[in-house]
From TrEMBL:
Pfam families: Palm_thioest (PF02089). SUPFAM superfamilies: alpha/beta-Hydrolases (SSF53474). The keyword Signal applies. This is palmitoyl-CoA hydrolase. Catalyzes the cleavage of thioester bonds from S-palmitoyl-CoA or S-palmitoyl-N-acetylcysteamine (unbranched structures) but does not have activity against palmitoylcysteine or palmitoylated proteins, branched structures or bulky head groups. Conversely, hydrolyzes both long and short chain fatty acyl-CoA substrate. GO terms for molecular function: thiolester hydrolase activity. Its main location: other. Gene3D superfamilies: alpha/beta hydrolase. Belongs to the palmitoyl-protein thioesterase family. Its EC number is 3.1.2.2.
């Protein structure tokens, strides 16, 4: 289990771990203690590499296979670990309220970083070498305006790469790590006030006019850049939209855990 921004393995997952053990007896759980609280703002490539090494050791200790759960920023880190370490033995990956397609809303910045900025100027801080090096949110901040897109693809060093939207040396590995999953489960809610748009949890995102583009109309799906279409065509891409669920509630509400997490641990 991988926690989100400004969170830790205990606050985020003690309750969830207890529910999993009660409802799915015999399950061995591990929630990473790495990059907790304020250290979770460190650039995502570093977090992925370090948590990934820890995770692969866990995989080797459980050769029968494991399941992976990530919440919020931790869901994005978890997805990237699958891609950075394509020899994993993950069966099911459950992405809970994760900004998988990016973030273009400042509530996350206000809530976790105490930054009260208009979203239209965040790129000035995020889209440069310093911003990319020191701030995790900058690594998945996606300004959809047409005149900013070239800068996004030039400067952002994480999200365009794991989406295989730019050329790099690990394109094949990044796709291999996703298509080998048995199931990719995406959980999101229109009442999520942190992830913006909330549909980013389902790999959907704004066009230049801030209209949300359905997944199947996006290049990452149509060109199957990292395997989403492959998963979908074999029935392995599962999306749940649940009304009334705030960002952090997913990992605390027993009814949600029973319906949307426990069934995918088999």
């Amino acid at each position: 289990l991988i926690h989100g921004l400004n969170a830790n393995n205990h606050d985020n997952f003690d309750n969830l771990t207890a529910m999993i053990k009660q409802r799915h007896p015999g399950t061995i759980t591990f929630a990473t203690p790495l990059y907790s609280n304020l250290s979770s703002i460190i650039r995502l490539t570093k977090q992925v590499e370090d948590i990934g090494v820890e995770f692969m050791n866990f995989c080797k200790s459980h050769p029968q296979g494991v399941n992976l759960i990530g919440h919020s920023q931790g869901a994005l880190i978890a997805r990237a670990i699958l891609q950075y370490f394509p020899d994993h033995n993950v069966h099911n990956f459950i992405s809970i309220a994760g900004p998988q397609a990016g973030q273009y809303g400042t509530e996350l910045l206000k809530k976790h970083l105490n930054w009260d900025l208009p979203k239209e100027i965040v790129y000035r801080i995020a889209y440069n070498e310093v911003g990319q090096h020191i701030c995790s949110v900058a690594n998945f901040w996606k300004d959809p305006r047409r005149n900013i897109q070239d800068l996004y693809y030039k400067e952002v060093k994480f999200l365009p790469e794991i989406n295989n939207e730019v050329n790099h040396s690990k394109v094949d590995d990044f796709k291999k790590g996703i298509v080998k999953l048995n199931r990719l489960v995406l959980l999101g809610s229109q009442n999520d006030t942190v992830i913006d748009p909330w549909q980013s949890a389902h790999f959907e995102f704004y066009d230049e006019n801030e209209n949300v583009v359905p997944l199947k109309n996006q290049r990452i799906y149509k060109d199957d850049l990292f395997g989403l279409r492959t998963l979908d065509e074999r029935g392995a891409l599962i999306t749940h939209s649940v009304s009334g669920v705030e960002h952090v509630v997913w990992v605390f509400d027993p009814a949600l855990v029973d319906q949307y997490i426990i069934p995918y641990l088999d």
